[in-house]
Design a protein that fits this description.
about 600 residues; PBP_dimer_sf; alpha+beta; Beta-lactamase; 7-stranded mixed β-sheet; 23 strands; 5-stranded antiparallel β-sheet; Penicillin-binding protein 2a (Domain 2)
Length: about 600
């Protein structure tokens, strides 16, 4: 064979190969043009044809934790399993002889799916046939919503292209009703509705990402076409409360509220040095895991939303302003009968009958004499007393700013009538909230320095950035001497007052004052025979660390403020033990009452 004859087949092979390469190069160039150069235009075409898909990547909502990091609220991932009814009923497989193809009845898949989801196979068939009955071209129906991660993985293992999944974050509250009044809750769709779930939504909310891809006309995702914009989780909100203490006090106030046959009750603990609230327990309350089982009135926090006349707890504020203004001392005296009519016509009475006593200021607090406090209070003008009450926080709310928090009410002094001029000396004609009363007593226990109250420790963002609350600076409200003398008088109340035996805490000196507030009726007067009762105390009295306040709304077993005394004793005992506060030293200086 000649060389020329040998070259001819080789040349033909080379030419054919070059032609093939040229064709492939043309396809590659066209593919680059479609997927890169003019991708945007063709993605639009794909979307118009239903060939582009996307999936939202959810950023998890951040956790809420207590002062020690105990989780109070967290997110878990559930999934909505979705099915493509048209694709599910048009899946093909080879015929038994291997020569052709046949449609696979959906019933053949239903049994395996049902084993994973826990549904009945017939129920699954009905979902698919029902969707197609409404729309023969249906490409979407819910197979089952809210499946667990285990069920999700089980369905993925089946490898069925007509089942897809949408992640659905779900909120979990491991401690149930403990701090439920503070933590709050979200809707089934994850919308924050109450408490710090709502108040700290900016901290807790994550940002969603997006995964986009292209798919074939039959709904199968095309590998390599995915683009991902990642999601970002929310931050961690740390509260100031102690979960263990909150649990104990929640149990205690539930027991005491029911024992005293009251409508509701609260126990709150404030750390004096920092202004941080360490517990805020109430009954009834809400379990964020089961919001619907709680009455709507119990889904917030009465500690912050309820304002009331402080009653006799307000008498300590009158004593503090008198001492600070220098117009009286603990041993200053006034004569006071059980009932007196003042020069302006105001009529004031004490809650018990007694002859005319030459009451000391300390004695007026110990016996809780309205008449004596009225006379002492008259040593200052109404304007002076109004301004002191305002400085103590009456009518101004707190720095916490809890959802629906009441501010309390303090009328201008020029609006005080003849009776109000005197009733304001013993805690009537103005209103406060539990945190406001505790803030004022903490100020007295803290040498006259008022600390801003807080319930939030910090928000820690996913990148580690820590954001702390922007709180005002501590403020010296009254002199240290006036505060210390007032604190000593409040300790005398605990030692010599009517509830002394009920509030003793072994090993600790206690300062405490009760309050029995009348409740307003619809006609502008007061309800007969029902009261909002309270007691506030701090310990150790010689070096105060914590203020504790107990309230009971309309107790019926014991109607006076004595109803709250046993709860205060138990709460203070637990607080001293829980925080390992050193026992008291020394004995209090006792004042003469008259």
């Amino acid at each position: 064979m000649s060389k020329r004859a040998e070259r001819s087949p080789r040349r033909r092979s080379v030419v054919a190969l070059l032609a093939v390469v040229a064709v492939l190069a043309g396809f590659v160039l066209r593919l680059v043009d479609i997927q890169v150069v003019n991708a945007g235009e063709h993605v639009g075409d794909a979307q118009a044809m239903g060939l582009a898909g996307e999936r939202v990547l959810y950023g998890n909502r951040g956790s809420i934790v207590d002062a020690d990091g105990t989780v109070l609220a967290s997110s878990t991932q559930l999934y909505d399993a979705q099915i493509d009814p048209l694709l599910a009923t048009t899946m093909e497989r080879k015929t038994a002889d291997g020569e052709g193809k046949e449609i696979v009845p959906f019933e053949d898949y239903a049994a395996d799916i049902a084993k994973v989801t826990g549904q009945d196979p017939d129920e699954l068939v009905e979902i698919v046939t029902g969707a197609l009955a409404e729309n023969p071209g249906s490409r979407f129906a819910y197979l089952k919503r809210g499946i667990t991660t285990t069920q999700y993985l089980g369905l993925v293992e089946l490898g069925l292209p007509f089942i897809t999944f949408t992640p659905q974050p779900s909120r979990v509250y491991p401690n149930g009703a403990v701090a439920g009044n503070l933590v709050g809750f979200t809707s089934s769709d994850g919308e924050p509705l109450a408490g710090y779930e709502l108040l700290a939504d900016d901290c807790l909310t994550g940002s969603n990402g997006l995964e986009t891809y292209q798919q074939s006309p039959d709904g199968v995702r095309i590998p390599g076409t995915e683009t991902v914009e990642p999601a970002e989780d929310g931050g961690t909100l740390q509260l100031t409360i102690d979960t263990d203490l909150q649990w104990y006090l929640s149990e205690l106030i539930a027991e005491e509220t029911q024992r005293m046959k009251a409508k509701s009750g609260t126990i709150t603990v404030l750390e004096i040095e920092t202004g941080k609230i360490r517990a805020a327990a109430e009954y009834p309350t809400v379990d964020p895991n089961d919001v619907q089982s709680a009455d709507p009135a119990d889904r917030g926090s009465r500690i912050f939303t309820t304002s009331f006349e402080p009653g006799s707890t307000g008498k300590a504020l009158t004593a503090a302003m008198l001492l600070d203004a220098g117009v009286a001392t603990p041993t200053s005296t006034v004569p006071a009968a059980a009932h007196e009519t003042f020069p302006n016509g105001a009529s004031i009475g004490d809650p018990f009958e007694h002859p005319v006593y030459n009451y000391t200021l300390a004695g007026a607090l110990i016996d809780s004499s309205n008449v004596a406090l009225s006379k002492f209070g008259d040593m200052l003008t109404p304007e002076q007393r109004h301004d002191y009450l305002e400085k103590f926080g009456v009518g101004g709310g707190t720095d916490i700013g809890f959802q629906g928090e009441a501010k309390g009410e303090l009328h201008p002094a020029d609006e005080w009538d003849n009776q109000t001029r005197y009733t304001t000396t013993f805690g009537q004609a103005y209103t406060m909230t539990v945190p406001q009363v505790m803030s004022a007593y903490a100020m007295i226990a803290n040498g006259g320095v008022k600390m801003p109250l807080s319930l939030v420790e910090s928000c820690t963002k996913p990148d580690g950035t820590v954001i702390t609350p922007d709180l005002p600076e501590p403020q010296q409200v009254i002199s240290e001497e006036a505060a210390n003398e007032t604190a000593l008088m409040i300790e005398n109340v605990a030692v010599q007052g009517s509830t002394a035996d009920l509030i003793k805490v072994p090993g600790y000196r206690v300062a405490a004052k009760t309050g029995t507030a009348q409740k307003p009726d619809e006609n502008g007067g007061y309800k007969a025979g029902v009261y909002f009762t309270s007691i506030v105390g701090f310990a150790p009295a010689e070096d105060p660390k914590y203020v504790v306040m107990v309230t009971l709304d309309e107790p019926m077993q014991v109607r006076s403020s004595a109803a709250t005394a046993p709860a205060l004793q138990k709460a203070l005992t637990q607080v001293m033990k829980h925080f390992r506060v050193m026992p008291s030293t020394g004995q209090p200086h006792l004042f003469e009452k008259y």
